[in-house]
Amino acid sequence: MSKVIYDKLKPLTIKRELAPVMLTDETIKERVAKVIENMEEQNLDALVIYGDLEHGSSFEYLTGFVTRFEEGMLVLHRNQEAFLLLGNENINKASKSRIPAKGIHMPQLSLPNQPMENDGQISLYFENAGLKEGLKVGVVGWKLFTSKVGQNNTYFDVSSFLIDALKEVVGSKNLSNQTELLIGSRFGARVTNNANEIAHYEFWSQLASQGIMSALDIIKVGISEMELAHVMQDYGQPRSVVTIAATGERFELGNIYPTRKEVALGDAMSLTVGYKGGLSSRAGYAAFEKEDLPVEQQDYLEVLAKPYYKAICTWLETIKVGMVGAELYEKIEEVFPKEVYNWSLNPGHLFSDEEWLSSPVYPESRTILESGMMFQTDIIPSKAGYAGTSCESGIALADEELRAEIKEKYPELYQVFMERRRYMREELGIKLSEDVLPMTDTVAFYRPFFLNKEKALKINY
Description:
6-stranded mixed sheet, globular, 4-stranded antiparallel sheet, 16% strand, alpha+beta
């Protein structure tokens, strides 16, 4: 029987020069084909895909860019004719789109109080984009509604001035929320990735991992949250979440950002950095050993950290292509009961350009886990009176065919994946399915006592 032990352990460090991997034209064509196929299955004539800075990933999936501080919409017809409705400062991006699209200037999508040249009725812009009465049109926002009591395809998370105009143009009965066509865990176009996409996202996953390790390597009593956050963020890359470098009591005066507060011995600590395509998170104590904690918390390893780590390792050893989401959920419930450890979110979720895409891991889920899915090991427990515990990173599922494609097209990355698997097997004691590709060097590497740079948790059989 396996046992979690706390022992001397060096982290894996693979020396390589990280560089962004661009999406190929072939990948963009493949993306378009997946979306069009989903439209045909749902008998849709067109999709209206909304985007803004925080909710622009489905828009960017086909266009290659986000609208930064403005809003935008991609109108994609089933015959692949496309229109981009853009504000004042993004209309010049229409010619840069990865898919051919005609730009339509819509000043209402601009920032407040900007010039209103080309002002017109909102419905007119949609008519100019080829929409008309009787067409079956789906709206893609970012919110995947999964209520068991409501009519989810009648809920819209896009501004009412846009939805009202769409209903006016095509008719209310012809308009539906079709966000699931892009991000639904059952058949969303974005939930699986090819070799090029996995290489594209691995850059950011590993960058986040390196940021976490940089912070862990310099943590000491007296260092400030801001100093830790400074080493966690690299190369001006787009972040998917607020960077967390928190010590001691959190959310004082409602603040969620790093401050000049200094690390004190025995503080609870939390570190998180996430980029488009990957996130890493660690939580524990600013301590060398358990004696640095208050007496009532000195059993932290046994009460929370070790059971949590066993759940993470079980998750990693269980997940594979072809299983259903409920099976993974039930396995975590078995080894790490929700009632005891008070976790509330899905124990594992998909990620992509955003930190949380959707999740097939929930009770009674019959969604099959597919090759090309990318997952975060996201289980968030809590125990009253103790600091949190977290060792969150990402993995990709890849069957034999996808692994061969990665090996052929990205041989260096393939070797990185193999070295990560070797480390997890030989040093951490985690027995992965052949389908699992660790997206960072630090998957399952966890120091619950942040000041102790020599010891980490691992599995001992």
